[in-house]
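Kindly inspect the following:
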Amino acid sequence: MTEPILQFDFPGLKKIRSGKVREVFDLGDRFLLVASDRISAFDVIMPNGIPRKGEVLTQISHFWFERFAALVPNHLLAGANDPLPNNLQPFAAQLARRSMIVKKAKPLAIECIVRGYLSGSGWKEYKKSQTVCGIKLPAGLTESAELPEPLFTPSTKAEAGHDENISFEAAQKIVGAELANQARDLSLKIYQAGRDYASQRGIIIADTKFEFGLFEGKLILIDEVLTPDSSRFWPADQYAPGRGQPSFDKQFVRDYLETLAWDKTPPGPQLPDDVVAKTSAKYLEAYEKLTGKKL
């Protein structure tokens, strides 16, 4: 199996941010985003990564950005197969399939989350109060049930620790009513389009998180889109409400970590080879199912 790439440094390029997965470099009038193979669980980055994960996230995002181009403007300045500019050619091998050259948008200060099914923190809250992010739902729903209609449930962006769910009214206060309304409407529209397409490919997109930014005064879609990192992907042929679902993401990692006497604070434990291999295979399978192509 190929070795995971955990870190990127390119001589002469200024790194301005290193997130849980992506590194951002300043190219002057544009940004270079590079997706590493790092994996985080419970908000902790694990010491070893998942081979090819960064490639999968980048190529799935390229796929959706192109697919949704008529629906919503996005931050891409180059397609998945466009040649790299001259100053990046020396790093072509490291950047292959895992980089995006993008507009310098100013990210909105909220996360745009859409939930189509009752899962995760939403299911926990529903059991207590019959609500999800404060939104009242019908009685009698089970775990993983499809919601009567998709919900827009924004959250704050935490620099450290967990993002916090907020009401739509709070989101309007943070970014302004007009932008919040626009972000909500676009989020629901993109989610529905992505979910309809994925269902034809045997994948249920249970929920997802979008990022928007402002560029030249307009709202555009940025970051990653409908990937196994930003969404819950469930295999449609195994879907059965009333329990948790198998998924195309970090499930093997989370399941393994739950067996340990680890307190879910850094440093994260080393992941065993079989967990790494199974997780890598799941990410690649998600790409192949969605696009109909091998990576």
Notes: The two ends are 15 Å apart (CA to CA).
